[in-house]
TrEMBL record:
<dbReference type="InterPro" id="IPR006311">
    <property type="entry name" value="TAT_signal"/>
</dbReference>
<dbReference type="InterPro" id="IPR017850">
    <property type="entry name" value="Alkaline_phosphatase_core_sf"/>
</dbReference>
<dbReference type="InterPro" id="IPR010869">
    <property type="entry name" value="DUF1501"/>
</dbReference>
<dbReference type="Pfam" id="PF07394">
    <property type="entry name" value="DUF1501"/>
</dbReference>
<protein>
    <recommendedName>
        <fullName>Sulfatase</fullName>
    </recommendedName>
</protein>
């Protein structure tokens, strides 16, 4: 008589009473039942009614300064170059206050405060869609940890990204494209691809990064001598072998994920070339996104791609813009960065709105933390920049069921600390999931001996952001 391998014996024990109990628990959970019946990326119903069906996250990597973008502080300008006595965060040694090198004005009918370097975003058609939130607080002063925290809910790495949780909970509307797509500039953000990792979730839910130059995905086109029919037959034979192996080793979830990735890659070869071909867009649209200007062409292309992807059913699109870490040369650094994203972001919101897509698309603009109102002397020189600040960060949201033309929360008179509607990042995550029709307490995955969730241990809704 053949002996059963120990691993399979133990697996069988675990899949008896334990699995029966788990199945019973899942039976009353509409989300889990739908997930069990459908494929991993098949569309799943939301847990509660919601307007938002997709997310476009515009991530300003490095930490944009709140006081130099959407939270002006006249008192800080008055204190410019005077000695600072702050000791929080990175503050050490002799320090001085730094007034903003930019002017600010109220824009749109809602009177949203905005740095004068934002020209296109100041258009009332765009500004009146923004919900500016000034009450969020981060936890880590280090870029990699802070990036991981806001992207995955954990500062340590190894946890699923926000986009992974959303595709796990809702699937994707287009089975020929990834549910979660990431675009970056020339360099990866700090902590690299861990920012869009599937973590302990199955590999189906990891982010797919599109390259900025050349083919957006390597090997998108098969070799010239390989026909689609030949490729299809090869995949079918491979699927038979893998299916037999999977049947003998059902605990190998990675194999099931790999099998699905082969099929998705095959379907993407037919779908992606048309998606990334912008020649089908009108000259007016390309100009609106800034595709004819060198300083906006890259980010403009990515924003236009984001609109096209959401239009084709991609669930979560994230675009990273680097270079916002202005410890020195604040005016030059932020001026350059704002100039590169202002027109494309404004075009994205206008485009979504005019196509009737903004109500169903949640747009988020954020960095990993805020900036300090002061800086330290370096070699006796007054370096006009700002350090990292976890106590105050500003972001904005648009569409997707958020409050239009609203400023939520406030910081103190110098922008050093949030003082109204103060919430940690985990509450932001809970709110973003809620806007997409997901409940953080129900969107869980069993791993490491317990059910895990994006917020780590729960949070509360920031109701002031929700329309």
């Amino acid at each position: 008589m053949n002996q059963q391998p120990r691993r399979e014996f133990l697996y069988g024990l675990g899949s008896s009473l334990g699995a029966l109990a788990l199945t019973d628990l899942m039976a009353g959970d509409g989300f889990a039942a739908a997930a069990a019946k459908a494929g991993p990326l098949s569309p799943k119903p939301p847990m509660h009614p919601s307007k938002a069906k997709a997310v476009i996250m515009l991530f300003m990597e490095g930490g944009p300064s709140q006081t130099d973008t959407f939270d002006p502080k006249p008192e800080l300008d008055r204190l410019h170059l005077s000695e600072s006595t702050r000791t929080e965060g990175l503050a050490s040694g002799k320090r001085f206050y730094v007034g903003s090198p930019f002017k600010s004005r109220k824009v749109g009918g809602a009177g949203i405060d905005m740095c004068d370097k934002f020209v296109h975003l100041a258009d009332a058609e765009v500004a009146d869609e923004l919900c500016v939130y000034r009450g969020c607080q981060a936890e880590s002063l280090n870029h990699p940890e802070a990036l991981l925290h806001i992207n995955t809910g954990s500062r340590l790495g190894g946890d699923p990204a926000l986009g992974s949780w959303m595709t796990y909970g809702l699937g994707s509307e287009n089975q020929n494209l990834p549910g979660y797509v990431v675009m970056t500039e020339l360099a990866l953000p700090q902590a690299g691809s861990t920012n869009w990792s599937n973590g302990f979730l199955p590999a189906y839910f990891q982010g797919t990064r599109l390259r900025t130059t050349g083919s957006p995905i390597l090997d998108l086109k098969p070799a010239g001598h390989i026909t689609p029919d030949h490729q299809r037959r090869a995949l079918d034979e491979l699927a038979k072998l893998n299916a037999a192996h999977l049947a003998a080793h059902p605990e190998h979830a990675e194999l099931a994920s790999r099998m699905e990735s082969y099929e998705l890659a095959f379907r993407m070869q037919a779908e992606v070339p048309g998606l990334v071909d912008l020649t089908t867009e009108s000259a007016e649209t390309l100009e609106m996104y800034g595709m004819n200007r060198p300083e906006t062409a890259t980010f403009g292309r990515q924003c236009l791609m984001a609109r096209r992807m959401v239009e084709q059913g991609v669930r979560f699109v994230q675009i990273f813009s680097g270079g916002w870490d202005s410890h020195d040369y604040l005016e030059r650094g932020h001026s350059s960065r704002i100039a590169s994203v202002d027109q494309p972001i404004a075009a994205l919101i206008k485009d979504l709105k005019r196509r009737g897509m903004l109500d169903e698309t949640l747009v988020i603009w954020t960095g990993e933390f805020g900036r300090t109102p002061d800086n330290n002397y370096r070699g006796g020189v007054t370096s006009l920049g700002r350090d990292h600040n976890v106590d105050a960060m500003t972001m904005w949201l648009a569409g997707g069921g958020t409050k239009r033309g609203t400023i939520v929360g406030a910081t103190d008179e110098i922008g050093a600390k949030a003082v109204e509607c103060v919430h940690p990042i985990r509450d932001l995550h809970v709110t973003l999931l809620h806007l997409m029709g997901l409940d953080d307490n129900r969107l869980t995955y069993f791993h490491g001996g317990r059910y895990k969730q994006l917020s780590q241990f729960g949070g509360e809704l920031i109701t002031e952001l929700i329309a």
